[in-house]
Design a protein that fits this description.
By secondary structure, the chain is mainly beta. Helix content is 13%, strand content 45%. It is built from five helices and 54 strands. Strands 2, 4, 5, 7, 8 and 9 form a six-stranded mixed β-sheet that branches. Strands 11, 13, 14, 16, 17 and 18 form a six-stranded mixed β-sheet that branches. Strands 28, 30, 31, 33, 34 and 35 form a six-stranded mixed β-sheet that branches. Helix 4 runs parallel beside helix 5. The longest helix has 33 residues. It is flat and about 165 Å long. The termini are far apart. One of its GO terms (biological process) is cell surface receptor signaling pathway. Keywords: Disulfide bond, Membrane, Signal, Transmembrane, Transmembrane helix.
């Protein structure tokens, strides 16, 4: 039963779901009557949604309209259209519109549509005052009440029969702006207007011009008058008086100023007249300016004044401009064509001129401290004129210059530059210094007390004598320094190290180390190092030679190692040799002792072994032992030849054992340069009978047979030893 109800419920849900199916086909936005709308006309923005449904059911739509990305309209409707009404279109309604429709969890947005509202409303201009004074300001306000910011406001000021003066203001957040215009001198009736602009589609749209507003200007005072008494053309020494006056409406804040070349000569406040008086000089000639100011108002008047010269400037003449100390100097002051004047002679000084004498002539004996500029002054009728300065230079003679090396010592490293300094202890500057290398002039320098010279062409065999001379404007002439001889230091080149003996050295012997260089100025510092101790040299010596020998006595095993030498001189360049290796070995007597200690035990062992064998032989000897000769000899002849080398422990019985000592003797005597010609030596010995029950004879007997065979290698007849008393002897 429950299963049946569940199946019915699911089928009903599926049928219900199938009945509510819908989809957006398109969403469109339109503007009526057109996308171009005249300013002030109405317009409608329509958003339409085209939707397909599975059945006819009611669907609720959420409409949202945007302008330039900002929400301007929103509504909810069961219809597929929504309308945004703008009763009066303004330029601020220009922009990009789009709409979005949301229904049943689905959303669709239209394409963007640009709407252009053409034209702007006419602005309104108001002035704060209709009548102003010169120097005041006119405050204006321009309104665009039906427009939305941002906006540009342009203000215009027009004088009678002149080009308008224009200013503009950008207003980002309001639809009006305020501007001030100054009222200048000469303004009488002014006309003002304004207009607005806004930015539209990569361009500007401009409004009509506003209403025109007239402002009347009144003068606060009249233009001033400027006069000079007794005249504007006078002679220097005469007194001249200036007078500047004006007529004002009110005295408050009135100011009169008299200027010449932007320099204020006199001024008065809240008065109508200014006066200024002075004794005229040539410097007083020029243009004078009278200015009257009140608030922002200002009026000026100009007057040119000409001043005639009463007498020319005096002229100062010196008997000499350059002279030696302790010489006489005469200064004379005069005025061309004019003799009645008061003269004075002075010396210029930064802290004020120093008076010397009230006279037209001055004679004095000078010293170096009198060097400087001199002037004379002449006074007539209170007018004082000054001559041009005359420069006087008093010279002390230069002392004999000294020439030295800047670094100190009179030496230079080959390839390095040499810097010299020439100095005079006394002498009035400027001093001219001249440097010589040999007798060749290298450089001339003008300086105060010293000069330097850089010689970069230093050669090993070049000229090494330098001198300099110094002179100034003193009549004593040139002074020359002593000749400075320079030592050229040749740097060390190619150091090498050798030893005698080389390589291996016997313990306790002497080794001679020789460190030498190919090139370098003396003295040379030689140092010999062992590589294991690079900080402390084993040997060190300063030598006036290109080599040094160090004899090291008593070499030991600790002296084994790698050695090198370093050579340096005053060039401060150290050169390191290639290393050599010294190996300290045992001395001959040490080897003999070691050999003795090793060979004596070996010799003792050999002697003991020989004695033991002899003892064993003697013990093995009997009364005379007879061997079964013939049969044994016949059967074993071939065997003996074969087994003499291989069967060292056994031998056949065809002979008898010789004495070991005689065997060694015969063996030694049988050796010689020609073994084939050697004859067999027969030794007669007595032997005991061989005991067949004892062990075979050892290597002593074997050696005897071997030596006999070697001596008779090609003889069959002498193959066997013939021992007297042997029964089978043939």
């Amino acid at each position: 039963m429950y299963l049946a109800l569940l199946v019915i419920f699911l089928q009903c849900s599926e049928l219900y779901t199938q009945e509510k199916v819908f989809t957006f086909n398109t969403v469109e936005i339109q503007v009526q009557p057109s996308v171009k709308v005249k300013n002030g006309d109405p317009m409608s923005v329509v958003c339409h949604a085209d939707i397909s449904k599975s059945t006819d059911f009611q669907l609720e739509h959420n409409f949202t309209i945007f302008k330039d990305g900002k929400l301007v309209f929103m509504t909810v409707s069961d219809k597929e259209d929504a309308r945004y009404e703008v009763s009066v279109a303004r330029s601020s309604d220009t922009g990009d519109y789009k709409c979005t429709v949301e229904a049943g969890g689905k959303t669709r947005t239209s394409d963007s549509l640009h709407v252009w509202v053409q034209g702007m409303t006419k602005p309104i201009l108001t002035a704060e005052k209709k009548e102003v004074l010169e120097g005041e300001v006119v405050k204006l306000r321009c309104d665009l009440p039906e427009e939305a910011p941002p906006l540009y406001f342009f203000f215009q000021k027009t004088k009678m029969n002149s080009t308008p003066q224009q200013k503009y203001v950008f207003e980002a957040h309001r639809n009006f702006s305020v501007m001030e215009f100054a009222v200048e001198e000469g303004d009488n009736i002014l006309q003002f207007d304004c207009f607005g602009k806004r930015y539209v589609q990569l361009g500007f749209e401009t409004s009509e011009h506003s209403n025109k507003t007239l402002v009347t200007v009144r003068e606060p005072f009249i233009k001033p008058t400027l006069s000079a008494k007794p005249s504007s053309n006078i002679t220097e020494g005469d007194r001249i008086q200036f007078e500047c006056s004006t007529v004002v409406a009110r005295m408050r804040d009135i100011e009169i100023i008299l200027q010449k070349n932007k320099t204020i000569l006199n001024s008065v406040r809240e008065e109508k007249v200014l006066k200024y008086s002075t004794v005229a000089t040539l410097e007083d000639a020029g243009e004078y300016l009278c200015k009257v100011e009140q608030g922002r108002a200002s009026k000026t008047t100009k007057l040119n004044v000409h001043v005639s010269e009463l007498f020319p400037k005096p002229i100062l003449v010196a008997s000499m401009n350059k002279l030696d100390e302790n010489k006489e100097l005469t200064l004379s002051c005069s005025i061309s064509g004019f003799r009645k004047a008061n003269f004075s002679i002075l010396r210029k000084n930064s802290n004020g001129d120093i008076w010397l004498r009230n006279s037209r002539n001055l004679t004095m004996r000078v010293n170096v401290n009198d060097t400087g500029s001199y002037i004379c002054k002449a006074e007539v009728k209170g007018i004082v004129k000054e001559s041009k300065p005359v420069r006087i230079n008093v010279y002390a003679p230069v002392s004999k210059p000294t020439l030295s090396v800047v670094s100190g010592l009179p030496q230079v490293v080959l390839g390095k530059p040499l810097r010299l300094i020439c100095r005079s202890a006394t002498g009035t500057p400027p001093i001219t210094f001249t440097f010589y290398k040999g007798n060749e002039i290298k450089k001339t320098v003008i300086n105060d007390t010293y000069a330097t010279f850089l010689d970069e062409n230093i050669r090993q065999n070049g000229k090494r004598g330098y001198k300099c001379d110094a002179r100034n404007n003193h009549s004593s002439g040139v002074k020359t320094s002593n000749i400075l001889n320079i030592t050229v230091i040749v740097p060390i080149r190619n150091a090498s190290l050798g030893s005698i003996p080389y390589g291996e050295v016997e313990d306790g012997s002497e080794t001679a180390f020789l460190c030498s260089v190919n090139e370098g100025s003396w003295p040379i510092l030689f140092r010999i190092f062992k590589k294991t101790d690079d900080k402390v040299p084993l040997f060190e010596k300063n030598e006036y030679a290109d080599r040094v020998m160090w004899r090291k006595e008593g070499m030991s095993r600790q002296d084994t190692g790698t050695y090198y030498c370093i050579a340096s001189n005053q060039a401060n360049v150290s050169v390191k040799s290639h290393p050599i290796t010294i190996n300290v070995i045992l001395a001959s007597w040490q080897k003999g002792i070691i050999a003795a200690f090793v060979l004596i035990p070996i010799a003792g062992a050999v002697i003991f072994t020989s004695w033991w064998f002899l003892w064993k032989k003697k013990k093995a000897k009997g009364p005379s032992m007879e061997m079964s000769g013939s049969a044994l000899a016949a059967n074993s002849t071939s065997e003996k030849l074969t087994r003499q080398h291989n069967d060292g422990d056994y031998y056949s019985g065809s002979g008898y054992i010789e004495d070991s000592e005689n065997h060694m003797k015969s063996t030694d005597e049988s050796k010689g340069p020609d073994l084939e010609s050697a004859e067999v030596e027969y030794t007669e010995v007595e032997v005991s009978t061989l005991d067949p029950h004892r062990a075979p004879v050892q290597k002593g007997t074997e050696t005897v047979y071997s030596e006999i065979r070697k001596a008779n290698n090609d003889s069959v007849e002498n193959r066997h030893s013939i021992i007297r008393g042997h029964p089978d002897a043939t």
